[in-house]
Amino acid sequence: MGLFGAAGIVYKPVEQIDLGPGSKEFYLKAIAKAPRMAGFLLKIFVWFLELRIIGTLLLYVVKRNNQIHKLVTNATLEESPMFVPLHPFIDLNEQEVKQIDSDASPPKRVQQAIKCLPATLEKPQDDLKHSCFRRWTIADYSRAYSSGEITPRRVAEQFIDAVRESSSSPLPMSFFINYDAKDILRQATESTLRYERGNPISALDGVPIAIKDEIDCSSYPTTGGTKWLHKVRPCTGDACCVMRLRSCGAIIVGKTNMHELGVGASGINPHYGTVRNPYDPNKIAGGSSSGSAAVVSAGLCPVALGVDGGGSVRMPASLCGVVGLKPTFGCIPHSGVLPLNFTVGMVGILAATLEDAFIVYAAISGQLPSHEPTILPASTSSPKVYFPLLNSTNPISYIKFAKYGETVEVTIPEIEAMILAHYVTCGSECSTSLSSYLEKLDFAELGWDARVALRICGAFHGKEYIKAQKMRNRQMQIHNNILAMADVIVTPTTGVTAYSIFDDALKTGEVDCINGAPLIRYQIAGNFLGLPAVTVPVGYDKAGLPIGLQFIGKPWSEPTLMHLAFAMQALCISDYRKPKVFYNLLHKN
Asked: Considering the chain, what is the average pLDDT of its residues?
């Protein structure tokens, strides 16, 4: 259509779309028409991009070449916009679940979750030390503390030593942006005293848990991976999810590194260092919850919290060979989380095992605080709380999977259009939430890749945002139709395994759409449509890098997803491999 012409697609009504395996719907491959840029080349591009006239032209070309104009801006959709992916609670009558008191305190919910776990988890550590590799779990920590085999104080000391070691190696792992050794030891000492008195608060008492630096956590600043955001938005207290973990006795061990402002998929942060993959420190850990995935993979914590705005929990979990759980939109209170992507972002859990993810899910999910407006429709009653009975001897059955055995073959159309609409949505929300700060900001405080991302985010206008919300409604209808035929959608978590870290990106960051696009391709429905999803490690590529499998479910179907992930984990766990960078915090010496 020429430089200034970009005709939009006319989307057919949803009821006319053939979702069957023989569908003639056109499958558009990943769109990533931009060269990789880092170092001096990236700086030159940013210089041009930030010029008023030339920058405007460059942004137009970038949006046109990546088909945003065709698939979103100038597209014709009959659907009305859907601005928030709200899901009224529906009792799904799931198999092998237990209803929990929705008003139960976090420690009581953790206790109920423990009762849902298999008795085999109660084996002593010595029974398992000669078997295949596995990371220490919450149950292992709790058992070791209760038996007096080791104390939370000693674990905290070994944790601090390990973090220092990881930071001083030839390739610094850059796991954390901030950690306070004195505060960690204080928490651990208090936990040790509770165990000595025989009254630990819960199974999480004394367990080290790390928090992504996008979530408020006293007394740390919340940087969002930047050098400036905490100066204009001070942290005034714990986020709700952190508060609930503290009430269970967990030791909060610091703020994990992340891609600056969550605007990238690599975890390369020019301010705080590049988070490296424990399976190969020359590879990326993924993003943006990079540090949270890496600390769990490396054995520093059995669990860490992240925020999933575009696969930002599941993708690094997959690349680092751990479990990543993103619940239904609204399931976990969002108070105290940076409002970067307020209709697509959710607090998520990265864990050594599905059981650990479940225990922390039990602790942090539940009723919203009274000061936080509910995001559930006004007509919706409070969701009932169901936990999966992972100790059941009756396997769940007759689960229909779409796409990949009972299997329902389906076509999921317009994936690329949904991804672009998600970009428009999260970019607009990020730009809007930061606008008052960016007006006064010296852009030299930003990483060069973040400057590109924010310039693009700020280039989306109202028409594009509305079209993106129309696409959200459309995709919600499509996925509802698919999930009426099947219970769960199964996909690879990522389209590729972790790619290499190049030296030219360490100080500037990088813009790499070629590698980034396949990393997030299968995860967007969870965010854009607010659906629950979980990834579990299932194998390794020829280079020994982890591969994850993702289950996407109906709203509020977390118990079923956890049953499936637990079963898949049981099939694969004997083949799990030890990362090249790994720390054993429960050793006695």
From this structure: 93
Q: pLDDT by residue (tens digit) across 74-108?
A: 999 999 999 999 999 999 999 999 999 989 999 99
Q: How many residues does the chain have?
A: 589
Residue 269 reports pLDDT greater than 80? yes
Q: Are 353 and 537 in contact (CB under 8 A)?
A: no
Q: Is 312 a catalytic residue?
A: yes
**Which is more confidently placed, 25 or 498?**
498
Neighbour tally for 557: CB within 10 Å: 23
Q: Which residues are bridge partners to 252 per DSSP?
A: 209
**Crossing angle between the packed helical segments 39-49 and 448-457, to the nearest 10 degrees:** 30
Q: What residue type is 561 in one-letter code? A: L
What single string gives the DSSP state of each residue in 332-352?
S--TTB--SSTTT-EEEEEES
* Separation CA 28–CA 23 (nearest Å): 14
* Cis peptide bond upstream of 288, omega within 30: yes
Cα distance between residue 473 and residue 271, in whole Å: 38
Q: Spot the catalytic one: 63, 70, 202, 212.
A: 212
pLDDT at 127: 47
Q: How many helices (H) and strands (E) does the chain have?
A: 18, 16
Q: Which of 191, 266, 288, 431 is catalytic?
A: 288
Catalytic residue among 312, 318, 365, 428: 312
Active site residue 212: yes
